[in-house]
Amino acid sequence: IVTSRLKEVANKIDGKQDLYPLKPTLDKESCWSIVIRSIEKELSANWILEKIKEDMVDRCGGLPLAAKTLAEIISTE
Question: Higher confidence at residue 27 or residue 48?
């Protein structure tokens, strides 16, 4: 299974066959909820996250895996 936001990347990895594009499934608040739940144990400075919330949610594009991955990146910094 290959996941990518970019069709070109998936084509390079798997070729043009068997690609199934999915539409984003999350609204902004649900996406943000995944980010917060994933990092709340590790970050106490939630006020910093609130300042960058809109940018983070926009970058996730409604994709749950993107939200989870972003949270993991933030929690390891």
Answer: 27
Nearest by Cα to 35 from 2, 59, 3 = 59
pLDDT grade for 70, boundaries at 50, 70 and 90? confident
CA 11 to chain centre: 21
Query: 3-state DSSP call for residue 62?
Result: coil
Full DSSP string of 6-58: -HHHHHHHH-STT---------HHHHHHHHHHHHTTT---HHHHHHTHHHHHH
Contact 67, 26 (CB under 8 A): yes
Q: pLDDT: is 15 or 65 the higher one?
A: 65
Distance of alpha carbon 65 from alpha carbon 53, whole angstroms: 17
Exposed, middle or buried: residue 54 (CB in 10 Å: 0-12, 13-18, 19+)? exposed
